[in-house]
Amino acid sequence: MKSLSKVIYIGLIVLILIPFSLFGMPGLVISAPIALLCGLIYAFVFENPFPKFNKKCSKYLLQVAVVCLGFNMNLQESLKSGADGMMFTVVSVIGVMVLGAMIGYWLHINRKTAYLISSGTAICGGSAIAAVGPVLKADTDEMAVSLGVIFILNSIALFIFPPLGHLFDMSQVQFGTWAAIAIHDTSSVVGAGETYGEVALQTATLIKLTRALWIIPLAFATMFIFRDKTGKISIPWFIFLFVAAMIFNTYVPMPSEFTECMVWIAKRGMVVTLFMIGASLTLKMIRSVGVKPLMLAVALWIIISFTSLIVVLKTVA
C-alpha cells in the first residue's frame, strides 16, 4: 500500500507539472483549485508517504514561486493597483486581532489558541501562526488546533472566492484586493488570483505579501502582550526577494523568454504547492479542531470577508 501511495503521489506531481497530451488532444493543464482537490482526495485515501518532505517542500516551493512571479510584475503599476488594499490592511489587521481576543474570551477559548487563530486570519494564515507560535511559546496542541482550523477554511476559500467574485461582477483589481485581505494563506490567495485573471493575480500577490510583513510588528507586540522577550522572531525574507525581482523586471531589460520561464515556474510551482498542502491534511488534524476554535475562526472569517467586500466594492475601481 505504501509503495502504491508513493507511485501515485509522484505521478500526480508530474501530471500537475507537465500537461500530458493523450490521443492528439491538447495537454490537460491542472488549475490551482483542482490541484488542491487532488491533494485533499489523496490525503483521505492514502497516508502521505513523505510527510516531512511534503511540509518543507511546500513551504520553500511557495516562496520560490512568489519570487519568480515578481519577474512578471512592474513595480510602479503594481504599487498603483495595490495602494487601496494597503491602506485597508492597517485597519483590518488591528481590527481582526482585537475582535479575535474579544470573541475568544467570550467563547472561553484558550488565550494562546485564540491569539494564534486571530493572527492567522489577520495576516497570512499558517505562516503567521508558525511565526508567532514560538514567540508565544505555544505548545503542540495549541499550534495543531490553530493550524488545523485555518487550513480547513483556507482550502474552502480557494473554491468559493472566484465564483463569488464573478457573482458580484468584481473587476480583477477588486477581486485581487478582496482575496488578499479575506483569504488566509498566501498559497490560496495566489491560487484564487490566478483563477480569476492575470491582473487579479498580481494585485492579490502584492497586497498579500505587504500584509505578511505585519508578522514582524505583530511578533514584537506579542512579546509585550505576553511579557516574554526571549521568543524567536521569524522574518519572511523571501518577500524582499519578491520586491527585488519586481524592481529588476521594471528597470532592467530582459528577454521575453526569461520572463515567460519565470512565470511558468511561478504558476506551476504554486499549483504543485497547493497539491502538497492538500496532501498534508490528516484525519488527526481534523479531529484536533474543536467546535469553539472553529466557531472563532469562522466568525472572524465572515466578518473580514463581508467587511472587506463592501469596502472594496465601494472604493476600488
Q: What keyword list fits this structure?
A:
mainly alpha, 79% helix, 317 residues
Topology:
Layout: H1 2-17, H2 32-45, H3 51-70, H4 75-106, H5 111-122, H6 126-136, H7 140-167, H8 172-182, H9 186-196, H10 198-212, H11 215-225, H12 238-251, H13 256-279, H14 283-288, H15 291-315
Helix pairs in contact: 2-13, 3-12, 3-13, 4-5, 4-8, 4-10, 4-15, 5-6, 5-7, 5-15, 6-7, 6-11, 7-9, 7-15, 8-9, 8-10, 8-15, 9-10, 9-13
Outline of this structure?
With about 325 residues, the chain is mostly helical.
Major sheet characteristics: none
What percentage of the residues does DSSP assign to strands (E)?
under 5%
- Which stretches are poorly predicted, pLDDT < 50 over at least 5 residues? 21-26
Helix content: over 70%
Radius of gyration from CA coordinates? 19 Å
Give the total of beta strands: 0
In DSSP terms (H or I, runs of 4 or more residues), the helix count works out at 15
Mean pLDDT: 82
Shape: globular
Distance between the termini: 53 Å
Instruction: Give the structural class.
Output: mainly alpha
Helix and strand run: HHHHHHHHHHHHHHH
How would you describe what is shown here?
By secondary structure, the chain is mainly alpha-helical. It contains 15 helices and no strands. It has helices at residues 2-17, 32-45, 51-70, 75-106, 111-122, 126-136, 140-167, 172-182, 186-196, 198-212, 215-225, 238-251, 256-279, 283-288, 291-315. Helix 8 (172-182) packs antiparallel against helix 9 (186-196). The chain is globular, with a radius of gyration of 19 Å. Mean pLDDT is 82; it is low at 21-26.
